[in-house]
Amino acid sequence: MAFGVTVDLVVFTIRDDRLCALFVRRGIPPHRDRWALPGGFVLEEEGLLDAARRELADETGLDDLPIHLEQLATYGDPGRDPRMRVVSVAYLAFGPELPEPEAGTDAAEARWRPVDEMAPHPDQLAFDHAQILSDGLERARAKLEYSPLATAFCAEEFTVAELRHVYEVVWGIELDPRNFHRKVTGSPGFLVPTDRRTTRNGGRPALLYRRGDATVLNPPIAR
């Protein structure tokens, strides 16, 4: 029996104040013309992470990006791919205001699409990518609670308001500014204040922060 290993990528960024994921429109069968997550088969002498980075570059033209990349889960239902038995290792990636993709290899089109437009319509996506997208979204939302992941959506230096905006977009809720400020500045090792301020968002000059060295937030930033 033929057997293959693939990688698939759930890549999130924030564009126009909406959480967006990267999709490609398949240019070849199976599922030709349907949207899919970027990905493809792992080469014989290739590591999984290397395969994920290569496929991202090959299918979308996005390479050497300042993104957080981590393994999400493994998917191996026998009928998930009509070509053969295929096990896919999915990766989750995050980055701030990532550039426009360019379709390549077997992708007819590559585009950032709002998650709230795609997730409710699983029939739009090829294979089991609706499930992978859903799992990636829940992982991202959960990790914002207990890790400094939200800073991966920010520039190197950011304001508390900009950080709060990340939480609001990913969680899909509105947060109280004062309560949020107290929580994030009071979480040891989360944020490090700089000696600079900015007016780029209008209003009074706001203090700029950078990410601290904490890997776990204690206490967590609860939804």
Short description:
Helices cover 25% and strands 30% of the residues.
Distance between the termini: 46 Å
Kindly identify the CATH topology of the largest domain.
Nucleoside Triphosphate Pyrophosphohydrolase
Q: What structural class should be given to the helix and strand makeup?
A: alpha+beta
Nearest-integer average pLDDT = 92
Major β-sheet annotation: 7 strands, mixed
**Regarding CATH, which class of the largest domain?**
Alpha Beta
Bulk shape: elongated
Fourth CATH level, the homologous superfamily of the largest domain: Nucleoside Triphosphate Pyrophosphohydrolase
Q: How many domains, in number, for the residues? A: 2
Q: Which architecture of the largest domain would the CATH scheme give at its second level?
A: Alpha-Beta Complex
Beta-strand percent range: 25-35%
Provide the descriptors you would attach to this structure in a database record.
two-stranded antiparallel sheet, alpha+beta, Nucleoside Triphosphate Pyrophosphohydrolase, seven-stranded mixed beta sheet, Arc Repressor Mutant, subunit A, 223 residues
